[in-house]
Amino acid sequence: MKIIQKREVWRRRTRDALLSTVVVLISVLVGALLVYGIGRSPFEAYATIFTSTFGSPSGFLYTLSQSGPLILVSLGLVLAFKGSFWNGGGEGQMLLGGMTGVMATYLAHLNNAPATLFVGFAAAFFISGAWASISGLLKVFFGVDDIVSTLLLSASAAFVVFYLVRVPFRAPTSQNAAVLGSVNVPNDAIFPSFFGINGVFPFAVACSVFLYFVLTRTKFGFKLRVLGNNRSTAIAYFGKAKANRLFISVSFLSGGFVGMGGMAMVSAFTFNIIAGASGGAYSAGGFTNSYGFIGIAIVFLAGLDPLAVIPASVFFVALVIGGLGLLVQLTIPSSLTITISGVAILFVSARLPIMQRLRTLVRRR
Amino acid sequence: MLVLQVSNIVEEGRDLVKRFGDLTAVDHVSVSVRRGEIGVLLGENGAGKSTYLKMLNGYLKPNSGTIYYEGQEIKFGSARHAVKKNIHTIYQNFSLIDLFTVKENLSLIFPDKSAGELKDMINKYGKNVDLDTRVALLPAGVKQRLEITRALESDAKVLLLDEPTSVLAYEERDKLFRDLAKLGKERSLAILITTHKLQDVVDYCDRVTVLKAGRLVLEKLVSETSLKELAVAMFGAAEELEESAAVGKGLNETDKTLEVKGLSVRGDNIPLAVRNVTFSMYRGEILGIIGIAGNGQLELADAMYGLRKPVMGEITTDASISKMGRKLRIARVAFTSDDPIMVGLAPDLSVKDNFGISLVDQLSDGPFVKWDALEQFASTAIERFEIKCNSQEDLLRELSGGNIQKVLVSREFGRDVDVLIAVHPARGLDLHTTYLVYKQILEIKRGGVSVLLVSEDVDEVIYVADRIGVMYEGQLSEVKPKQEWTRQAIGSFMVGAQASEGAQIAT
How far is CA B387 from CA B137, B332, B345, B469, in A? Predict the structure, then answer.
């Protein structure tokens, strides 16, 4: 019995992994057609993407480091979607997390690296979590749609951050009216690198493992999965109050992890937040890299599995970095890689409805 | 019954068979729909009435058998094809757009008609409705009338109505049938309805076909049959009840577990689904509550489990529980007609996870789930109830319907509780498993649990319960030991015919 179960689990894992690989291959193929369409060699293009991301040890480590924040953001979304909290506001939560990290570490003056990092990440977690749980509360008490409220609150968060960057936390050196930068985080709040790899990557991986453990081993994770799969069942067996509390916790934790993704971005790569006046607060220096949205695709590509989020995030980050390589080395527009990720997102989201339709067709005949 | 006027037949299904997997929902049944007549398919839930209707309107394709329409053999490509042939269907949950006004809804079908013409159209069929009211705000009867109007104005030749009376109040029911009869005669419309209410048939219909478990058991002109004959066809032979196996021990006040007093509960479509119901439950006793679907027994069970708030009345826990100084623990097994996994299970989680849903608090160690203990429980249950799955890691939705049901039954039966509420615990199970479920319920009762069995199956209640009460339109009959009931008395109460037949015979 035990052996059969293990085999069953692995069968499903392999099937999911295979499906995700097929999705990735299809999008790569579409990309190749596009390159061919503009009269360039697809092989050359992919060789460039590959060498600029995985080709050298330092490039590889850089790609891994870069994927750290994206992994954290995606983990927040895994939690959300497992608990059927449709968090579409990752962008705002990430921005808010980054800003909170800047403010907390700047104001704390701890002169101690681990303590400063802890304060920064904890503050980011708490504030972004609180922001996301507004949507959770609205859903539970007023039935407000969570997709809508998270998205709208995301815009509000961006304006709050825009104000914070422009007025109280503007860097004294930043006088340009068009692009303003916030103060930098103190040196203690900069995530150190080990052997060429930034600490945010191992930190994100540790978080993945931790969440995997929480979801599969603990009572909380179990109830969260039940709630996410069938709300009426959760209400019937856990009680309405408990189910509601669970949903609000889910929204808090989800926002918290996304916020840590923002802090990781600040602490490892950008060190401050830049707010451009041109596109309003939305273009806060391109700080989020649209991770709040890319994360949604990653989560589905990874089949809501916190461990599978790691390779999926690395893949997407590699596309982003490879896109820059294309532009610099071959002058192929980097929008090619955006298209590839777009096609991947399309197929990931189309997968379920297509299979559903096939199933109902079979049943009706 | 010989059919003399063959030309009356507008649409006819001959020898239709429909299978869903292993289940044969309709088994070689022939039914014809005749001009100027109201025909009726009568049967309990799951007898195959709706499935038959859906084959006649092209929504489902029969596995074998043929459909004739106006004398010609016809194969429907889709439900739309049938609508083009002027076969219209009115389902229980209407196909109007709730957010649109009456006018907007009608304009979708008749884009060329002016507001005045639409108004005339509505008035013609006897309901005075404001064209600018949103459909969501209309009572069920008016919505139904709108749909009928829509079908008639689209030149319907055949009108199929699936359980048209289940959403209607009594007076509305009367009006609907009078109008249907009038329309049928005036426009030589062929009408076929499905129902499980005997009274509908006897009062208003012309020709009845009784289905039981997918088979045709009786076909007659209503004028040539009686309520009694129909009840027997639907529910089985009119024999006396067997004596209860366990000698009914006296019901002790100290053994009282739950007391329900003057309980009224709101329904989804009707203001009061349960009306002023009072009864008590005792340790080591099975209370059977029987009624045809939609008579309030589901809402009653929900209220007792805390899923619905009562409008009036109260549910109190009594002596034996409070003496032990712990909270009452209730397990609940419930299957509603359409979706057995709506409440109680999580289809996208594994079988093992599904066992955990109600056991996780019992089987955990601090914040951690004791997966080994849960696995142990699951494998015992899988073995005892012969649940067919490759392993506990199968996703629940990969199991067949019967096995999904067994997961819920075996889980809830295995819990350490004071009260068990079982709603149709054996619905859709094969005979072998059904008896397994009954044996388990009896065993649980012997263990001192007080059991509430809500059922639509007379045989089930008679076999299992110690005391029986019948629900009709939200009200509960007197609750009596089963020796004081006859099968027929139960049947009559279920269809609300106790007054007309006076069938309350004590043994």
Answer: 45, 19, 15, 32
Q: Compute the distance between CA of residue B153 and CA of residue A328 in angstroms, rounded to an integer.
A: 68
The number of beta carbons lying within 10 Å of the beta carbon of residue A319 is: 24
In a domain, A240, yes or no: yes
Task: Give every CB contact of residue B362 below 8 A, 6+ residues apart in sequence.
Answer: B415, B416
Dmax (CA) for chain A in angstroms is 71
Q: Does residue A353 fall inside a structural domain?
A: yes
C-beta separation of A67 from A317 below 8 A: yes
Q: Which domain holds residue A78?
A: 16-364
How many domains, in total, are found in chain A?
1
- Residue closest to A241 by CA, chosen among A253, A227, A230: A227
Q: What is the mean pLDDT of residues B248-267?
A: 77
In three-state secondary structure terms, A192 is coil
Q: Is residue A56 a part of any domain in this protein?
A: yes
Taking 70 as the threshold, does the pLDDT of residue B77 lie above it? yes
Check for a shared fold between B9-235 and B253-501.
yes
Chain A CB within 8 Å of residue B124 CB: no
C-beta atoms of B367 and A218 within 8 A: yes
Q: What six digits make up the tokens of A271?
A: 């060190």
Across the interface, of A7, A236, A365, the residue whose CB is closest to B344 is A236
Cβ-nearest to A8 among B348, B369, B394: B394
Contacts of A225 in chain B (CB under 8 A): 346, 349, 353
**pLDDT digits 0-9 by tens, B267-288:** 877 778 888 999 888 888 899 9
Q: Do B349 and A218 touch (CB under 8 A)?
A: no
Flag whether residue B305 sits within 8 Å of chain A, measured between CB atoms: yes
The strand pair at B467-472 and B207-212 is best described as unpaired
Quote the ipTM score. Answer: 0.81
State pLDDT tens for residues A308-359. 999 989 988 888 888 888 887 887 777 777 777 777 777 777 766 666 666 5
Identify the CA nearest to A106 among candidates A120, A91, A93, A85. Answer: A120
Cβ atoms of residues B209 and B31 within 8 Å: yes
With CA atoms as reference, report the closest residue to B463 among B498, B436, B429: B436
- The H or E element containing residue B281 is strand B274-282
Strand partners, B227: none
Contact B307 A235 (CB under 8 A): yes
What does the pLDDT look like over B364-377, one tens digit per residue? 888 898 889 999 99
Say whether B160 sits in a helix, a strand or coil: strand
Return the residue of A nearest to B21 by Cα. Answer: A363
Mutate to test the interface with B, among A226, A232, A240, A360 (most CBs of B within 10 A): A226
Contacts of A219 in chain B (CB under 8 A): 360-361, 364, 367-369
With beta carbons under 8 A apart, name residues in chain B contacting A5: 391-393
One-character DSSP codes across B122-152? HHHTT----TTSBGGGS-HHHHHHHHHHHHH
Distance CA B394, CA B375 (A): 13
CA distance readout (Å), A199 to A54, A68, A196, A267: 19, 8, 9, 10
- CATH number among 1.10.8.1000, 3.40.1190.10, 3.10.290.10, 3.40.50.300, domain B253-501: 3.40.50.300
CB spacing of A223 vs B369 below 8 angstroms:
no
Q: Which residue of A1, A218, A232 is in closest CB contact with B379?
A: A1
CATH number of B9-235: 3.40.50.300
**Shortest CA gap B363–chain A (Å):** 10
**CATH number of the domain bearing residue A55:** 1.10.3470
Say if residues A217 and B369 touch (Cβ distance below 8 Å): yes
Closest Cβ opposite residue B357 in set A7, A220, A226: A226
Within a domain: A9:
no
DSSP A218: B
